[in-house]
Amino acid sequence: MKKQFAVIGLGRFGGSICKELNDQGMEVLAIDINEDKVNEYASVATHAVMADTTDENTLRSLGIRNFDHVIVAIGDNIQSSILTTLMLVELGLPHITVKAQNDYHEKVLLKIGAHKVVHPERDMGIRIAHNIVSKNVLDYLELSDEYSIVELMAGQRVDGRSLIDLDIRAKFGCNIMAVKREEYIDVSPAPDQNIKKGDILIVIGADKDITRMEQALFDDDDAGTM
Ligand code: ATP
């Protein structure tokens, strides 16, 4: 059976989640307090309804308990976001993802039982900053305060060298999880695999180790083009 999703709040974030879930063939209930928003998403979501989700009876009457995953994308109105989340937790929803406006909002959401909290603006800001500082860093995913996964573009310095030869694990304490070359992705590459300029290496490690490795091996002016 198809998974059932509900998206509450159809701003830019909630709206794009709604569209993407629909594109992936999922069942999506789109909910907003604003009638114009509901009309806008009527043809995108499986169903679109106008409702104030801070009202428990309204939530119950929508049959929200039967959904597999609810995404709360109410932004500016932190009070509504918290109240809605609290009621979803009390109703026993198995997966609740909530967009937070700031760190205090996140703390409260996690305390009251949200399963996942996201900060789309902050996270995208961090990723773009890493890409601006070093053009070899194509993408960046923070795993914790100290550890990350990064996508690095191979340049002249590593061109034609094997993973054994580069000896990244011993020298820098990082691990190459995968190597992407055009459409092909090699997960857990063999030690004798040769790197080519323009390959994309997906690396996991401590931030300080990744930075050392990036400066030593990837800080080229002539890295491959994206
Ligand atoms: P984005 O940055 O994603 O565009 P935002 O952070 O500016 O969004 P808002 O526009 O404040 O977020 O809220 C997103 C949507 O949530 C709005 O369309 C708003 O009408 C809706 N919303 C706010 N309160 C409620 C509520 N109590 N019940 C249902 N929807 C609500």
TrEMBL record:
Location of the RCK C-terminal domain = 135-219
As one GO molecular function, the record gives: monoatomic cation transmembrane transporter activity
One short Pfam name that applies is TrkA_N
Q: Which residues form the RCK N-terminal domain?
A: 2-118
**PROSITE patterns the UniProt entry points to:** RCK_C, RCK_N
Gene Ontology biological process: potassium ion transport
* InterPro entries on file: NAD(P)-bd_dom_sf, RCK_C, RCK_C_sf, RCK_N, Trk_Ktr_HKT_K-transport
Q: Which residues form a coiled coil?
A: none
Q: What is the protein name stated in its UniProt record?
A: Potassium transporter Trk
Annotated source species: Alkalicoccus urumqiensis
